Every structure is written in structure tokens, then in C-alpha cells.
Fold each of these.
Amino acid sequence: MNTKKVLFKSASATLAVAGGQIAIYLTILTLLANSEYAFEQFALYKFYIISLALGFGAQIGLFIYLRNSIKGKSSSGKIILVSGTTSTTSMVSCCVHHLASILPVIGASGIISTIGQYQTSLYWVGLSFNAIGIIFIASRIFKLRSTARHSTVALSVVAIAVVSLLVISCSGSDQSAVTDSGAAELQSQTNQDGPVSITVTPQDISDSATTWDFQIALNTHMGDLGEDLTQVIVLVADGKEYKPVAWDGDPPGGHHRRGVLKFDPVSPKPGTMTLKIHQVGGIDERSFTWNI
């Protein structure tokens, strides 16, 4: 087959498979929860999910390139199957707890809780399998025909995979970092300890604000979110604790809650502020700190 046609076919397969895997991910989460939650999870873990999908797609593209260009037999198909299954498992792990509602006969609440708790670790497992698969298939290309043309293709795909892993590593570190941005641009912070994931985003804390607002999103992989957030959350500034004055959001219960927690403004404005959340998801204390 013409080299250009082979490359086009391989690239098309890579993009199609990657797009299809992302579509499957969003569809599963939409069916098990709702579309809002599906896209919320995609936004939260987009770097992992896109890399998993592209990694699996790259293996398919390389395999097609290998098969059509070299016409040799290879065990690469088994590697693709293993890494593809791992990638999909990692991607849908964020909402695996809903399976307990659909298939109550399973009764594996302990396993479900564990999978949800180690969601990020599962993403890395999937990425590792993708990397192994890409390197393995690339090695077959080198071994069976180490011409400059085939070597360039294999090296390019491996390089893309390495760069993707580095980007994921940096993005994952930045996600939970304490920010030094101005009051109007304070960034979201996420804590994923235990079976409950909590994301906090400061809203308006300007000098003219009548209340200091924090948008809070809670997602659990097991049980209900029944806590009274006005009783388990405090704002700490200059060594003093301030209790919230109101919660404007979803009532207690369910697997997903979102709303705005309001505090009276702190005056004079402190240099730093910390939101502390106690006894949610079995975690004694979670802290979210910003420089303002």
C-alpha cells in the first residue's frame, strides 16, 4: 500500500479511536448519572482522559501502520487489548459507584469504594499500559524493518507519548497547588482524600462584597452526602475561625451536591485564608488555602 495512504489511514484510526473512547466515557457517565456530571468530570480530569484516549488511539494507528507496511505477524494485538481495556476501566472509574444502584446483586460496595478512592492512581495505571503498548509496537517496527521512514514514524509516536505523560504530570501537580493569584482570580482547589471528592472555588471576596462566597462541589463514590455544610465548614483568617452564614445549593443527600457557601466579609482583609472542612467522607479535616 502507498506510504501516504498508510500514514493517512493510521492517523485517521488514531483520531477516530480516541474520539470514540471519549464519547463512550461521556455516554456511560451520562447514563449512570447525568450529562452535567459527565462533563464536570471530564473537565476535572480532561488531561488524563484525553491522554488515555490518544494513547490507545496511537496504538491502534501504529498497529495498522505495522500491519499494512510490514505485512508481518506480531503479538502487538494482545498488548493493544490489554492497554485498551485498562484505559477504559480507568476512565469510567470515577462513576463506578452508580453500578451498585443498577446492579444491586453485585453487592460489592467495598470494591466500588476502593476503585473510586484510587481513581487518579487508576488513570496512571492506564497511562502506563498505554506507554508500554506504544513502546512495544514501535519496537516491532524497528525490529522488522529499521528503515529511516519507519523509524521516524515510530520515534514520533513515542515522543508524543512521552510529552503527553510529562504534561499530565505537570497538570496533575498544578491542580492541587495553592495559588498566589489576586482575589478576583483565586483558582479552584480539589481534595480527593477518601471516597468523597471536594472542589472549592472562591467567588467574590472583593472589598465591596456583601458576603464572601465559595462555590463547593461534592461527589462521592459511596453513600450519601448528608452533612450540614454550615456546621462542618469554617473559614480561618488571621488565626480566627468564622462560621458560614448560609448555604445556597443542593440539600443534604445524594451522590453529588453543588452550591455556594456564604460567610460575612473579614475585615481588615487578611493576607491568607483557609477553608477547613471537617468529617466529610471519613476525613477528619481538609484544608484549602489561598493567598489574597
Amino acid sequence: MHITNWIQDNYIEIFGALTGIIYVFLEIRQNVWLWPVGIITSSVYIWVFFNGKLYADMSLQAYYLFISILGWYWWVRGSVKMGSAAENFSRRENIEPGGSSEKLRVTRLNIRTGIILFVVSIVLWFVLWAVLKSFTDSPVPAWDSSVTSLSIVATWMLARKIYEHWYLWVLVNLSAAALFFSRNLYPTVILYIVYCIMSFAGLIEWRKSLPGKHRLDFVPVDKDSLVITEKQKERSIS
């Protein structure tokens, strides 16, 4: 009876946790449907975090709604239209052909972008902390702000298909799980533990999509081909 009552009291949060797990599964698979599922999840958690007095995380969900629409567009349409080779050559570092448009592909984080994102995360943290400290009754303004600022950066990196966003999600998910535990949001704690585990799966899966030297390919070896190769070597020597 106690479990039934708990489910009835937290069914919205439980629903959000389930859609969140589906979201990360689709993210790992690089399935574009992760974005509409993310819209649903974010809508649910705006309500959940408002009731939990986690206002930075609540505002983060509003950002997720926006970036989900933008990411949906980027993943489906690509970053540029197909045009002349001279016009688009310098803008193709992270895009690949896909019909009448160019689709994003997985890329590595370059130093310049990494520095910019680091500075942005620090600025976001300070601004959010100042707002929460001065204008809300948040019991954990610094903690809440750190999770939110890093999540904003990681989500932008996801929208651009930057591989290293998975490392950031590992850090965010561990920190967020502890934060939500302190606020008695237990279904969400479970969700973020699952997120953390799935982040490692995402690292492995997305690495397969990296171009050239960044990718680790495990190609099965045919024993017969090895025999033929050795025979060819012997003939060439003789």
C-alpha cells in the first residue's frame, strides 16, 4: 500500500524518468527521435524541479526545450545547404553528405572551442549562482548552478555532435544524482545513475562514428587470408 501511494504521489516524476531513459538510449544510437522525446522529458521536469525548489534546473529544462528544437533541425537538415564546393569547403569539418542537405557527423572537440566552452560554463555558473543566491529560496544555489551550467554546455555539444560531451555528462550525472538525493527526488536519482552508466555506453558507441584516425576499428581477421598473404610473401622473396 505504501509503494502504491508513493507511485500515485510521484507518477509525473516517474514518467519523466522513464522518458529520460528512452532519451539517452536514442542519443546513444544517434537517433533523431531523441529530440521530441527530450521535449516531453523537459516539459515534465520543469514541473518536478519547480516543486523541488531547484530553480536553476527548472530553467535548464526550458533551455532544453529550445535546444531540442535547434538540435532537431541541425540533425535533420545539417548546418548548411548543399552549394558550390568553393563556398562550403571550409564549413564541412563536421558535416557529411545527405541528399539535398548536409548531415552532422560526430567530431572531436578542438582546443579553441574547448576554451570557449570552459569560459562560458564559468560565466554561466557565476550568473546562475548570483541569481539563485539573491532572488530565490534555493537551499543549494552553488551546487544547483554547477549542474545547470555544465548541462547547458554538454547539451550544446550534443546538438553539434561533439564526441567529448559524453565525458561531461558523466560528471554532470554523478553530481546531479547526489543533488537530487539531497532533495528527496528518488526516481530522478535513479534516472541520473542510469544516465551515468549509459554515458559510458555512449562513449563506446559514438567512437565508432569518429572519422579516420580518431576511430578504433576492430576488424575480424580471416585465417585463410593470412595463409594466402604468407604464401605471397614467400613467393615475392624467392
Amino acid sequence: MFTRNFELLRRGTVKTATLCAAALIAIAGSTTLASAQKKAADAKKPSNAWVKLCERVATDPKKPKVKKNVCITQTENIDALSGMVRAAVAIRTIEGQKEPRVLVTVPLNMVIPAGTQIKIDDAKKGIPLKYMFCGVQGCVAEQAANEKLIADLAKGKEVTVASVTVSGKIYELKMPLTGFSATYKGKPIDPKKYAEARKKLYKLIRARQAEYAKKVQEARKKKAEEDKKKKN
């Protein structure tokens, strides 16, 4: 899965799914008393919502044997019930490229010509991004990320993703920038640990979906019985 994500990333796609870095690490971590006490203490601190992943992959289809180091520092907002990516913001760097790229992923029901934009804190103007393509998990937009943008992300508190839906409504989602700078400059996490944590995360989501479906079914059954009693 990790390698497949980077093959998609080579084309500009961001498909790695996380609630946030803190959530994934917490899921993958041990459940000893010491770790539980540490997590309780850390819960009082602002959590890092960013994760950094790196892998050596072929970035040029014409040169499949030539591999470069590709890193992505990202945060994602995932619907806890459906598992759908509500929005994702990422900075992608590729070995040999002078300038990184900022990538934004939003759901499919957006107006493509209008593009999307991101705004850091209370900035008067947003940064426009053009959609590059759409896939199963959403539409991806990207733009060059200059030094000013990286600096603004590093010192900012939140980044707002704004798009226009096909029904003409504004789709807006705020995402925290806590931990971005340290994560971007720091070392990537172990891809195996990340993959395992993600697997556990989606297992929890599937369990939540099953529980929700069971409750809906029980509620419908109860209502049907009540309606039957009223008729009798």
C-alpha cells in the first residue's frame, strides 16, 4: 500500500489516509501503563496533526530504473464514520527538484474550473490551486510551494481549504498547522509502522460502521413494531 501510494504521488496524487499523525501513532503504540500515562500527559499538549513519509521511487515513466527520494508531509481530515477523506493538505518534495509542491485533495463533488484555494490564518487573500485530476478518493489540486508559503505554514495556526461544490455551496474546512514545521524538517516515520497504524485505524472505522448499521437496523425494527401496534 505504501509503495502504491508513492506511485500515485508521482503523478501528483495524495491518497495516504490519516486522521492525524498523533492518532496513527497512538493506535500503533503500546498499551502499557507507562505509555498510557504519557499519552494522558501528552493529551494536554497541542497534538501534531502532520506526518512525513518518504520513499525512493521512479518519478519518470521513461526511466523506471532511476529512483529518487520523494517525501510528503501531510495532514488529512477523515470522516470517522465513512472513512472518506474530507480534505488533505500536503507538501511534496522530490530529489533534484528546486521547489516543492503543495497538494490539496477534496471530495469529488466540486466545480473543477473554479479550482480550490488554501488560506493561512486570517490572510486577506487565499492561494489558488488548479485541479490536476480526480480519482476514486477525490480531486487533487496543486501549485508550486515557494519559500514564503512554507514559512507561512510553519508559523501559522491553521490552514483553510475552500472549494465550490456542484450545488454552488462553499465547501470549507480548517486544518491545524500544529507540528508542521518540525515534521517537515524532521525525519520521516517508519513506513511499516505507518502502514500498520493505518490498517488498525481503518479496522476501527469498519467496526464503527458495522455498529452504526446495527443501530439503524434496530431503530427501524422498533419503529416498525410501534407502527404495527398503533394500527392494531
Amino acid sequence: MNKVDLEVTDLNTEEHAKEEILAEEMPKKKKNNVMSTVLVCVGIMCIGIAIYGLYGSYKEYKDGQDIYNQAEDEFVHVNDDWGEDEIGTTTEDPNIPDEFVSENPDSSTTNTPAPEAPKGPWYERVSVDLKGLQAINPEIVGWLYFENEKINYPILQGEDNEKYLTTAYNGAQSNVGSIFVDAANSGDFSDTHTLIYGHTLHDNTMLSRLKYYMTKSWYYENHKYFQIFCGDEILRYQIFSYQEVGVDSYIYWERFESAKELSDRMLQTSKINPGLNIEDDDKIITFSTCVSDKAYRLVVSAVLVERYNITDNILTEE
């Protein structure tokens, strides 16, 4: 074989080797492309499922809150003399998530002016058709209205403390649940200590706004009072204590005959002490709602300071 033949043979061998390498690499490339496509599709599916889950959760909360908005529209009347600015408003935009709100109490985003001076007696702010609500559900024992804040809901009481965790005031199943009185309490708020439960939700509804007592130093001054409509009376309470407690706290399990004894114990660990003169026969209400740590609860306690009899038009200081 001459030199030219050898060179041609070598070239043919090289070409053949390249073809074999390409032939081996082609399936690998196709396999890698298929895997890449599968991973992209799986990623898109995961994102889609996450978005769908978030939307489903949002819709569920919105549907639950819509039930209560309808109840408020139908059964609660705002006194026109007060105006919308003073009724059910808060000192910060409820649509702004917490992570975008400054925690600095001196910040211009949080340090807002106090509400305007009252335009009339506190008991003329709103009126509630409690009988109309009780015609829908006889387990409605009252209506909760926080002055200057968007906490405005019916109060329920069931035979146990499970039902209204996932049941709206009208009996509809909802993870929003209801605000409800402990099953062991009297439904007329006459006990020395009444426990009221409600969820803290991501959309800032139900009892979610109670967290601001703990996180905003200016909040208490603008949100000291709330009212409970019960029978033919409006009961007005002033908050005197708030703190986080364990789920096994004495607040849930011990029964107190003396409001003074209970309040003295609460104030030992409370984040605030406004110096109220609480006596043995006073009536205390404690709101309990969840926090991020499941082993703890936020509790906000208040004492009855005034009551107004709607039928007889009589105001009584407690």
C-alpha cells in the first residue's frame, strides 16, 4: 500500500470514529433535552399548584369575611352623626401587610393622630338588630364592636369550644370560624371572667388586629374601648392588660370569684397597666387568639366600665 492509500485509510478511519462518537452522543443529548423539558414542566406544575393553593386560601378567607360583611350591612346601623371616618377605622392601612409597616412607633407611617373627639355619647355610635341575628342562629349571644377599629362581629356560644372554630355565625362551614364565648361561661357576660375566642388570620380579619397591642406602642391609646350588645343592653369595656401566655395558662383553667384577684395576677405579667381600680365584683372579659408559636396565645383583657340600657335609656357606671 502506497503513502496516498495510507493517508486515505487514516482519514476514513477518523471520519468513522467521529461518526461513532456522534452516534453515541445523540441519544445522550436527546435524553438530556427530555429531562430538561420534564424538569421545566414539573417546575411549572409546582408553581401552578402553589398559586392555585394560595388563590384557594385567599378565596376561602374572602368568602368567609363576605359572610360577616353582609351581616354587618344588614344588622348594624352606623349613626350618621359620627360618620364613616370615626366608625370602624384603624390608625394604619389594613391592606398593607405587616412586613411593610414600620415597627418604629415614632415613624410617620405609624405614629398617626388620635381619633377625633366624640361627637356624642359612646352608646350612640352604632345600633345592632340583635333579634334579627338571633332569628338566623339562636346561638348568637351578642355583637362585638371595637371603637375606632374594624373588629365588628357577632358573638356565638356553642355546646363545646370546637364547633365555631370552623363554623360561621349563619351555620356555614368556614375556616374563618366565628368569635365565640367559652362553653363553660354564661352567655350573658355576667361571670366574673368570660373567655372569648377567635382566629388570627392573614387578611387581618376576626381578632387579627389584637396583635397591634403587642407590636405598636401607640395603639392602646387609640383603642382602649369596645362594646358588646347583649339583650337590651350595651356593655362598654376598657382594656387593662395584654400579654402572651402558654396554652396551659391559669387564665383558661382557673375560676376566679374575685375580679380584683384575677386582674392583680394578670397585671403581674401584663405589657401595660393603665391603673384602673378593679374591684371584687367587677366583670372581666379576656379575648384569646393564636400567635405564630402554637404553644402560646395572645390574651387581651378588659373590665366592664359602663352599661347602657337601650329600652329604659339609662346609663350606669360600673
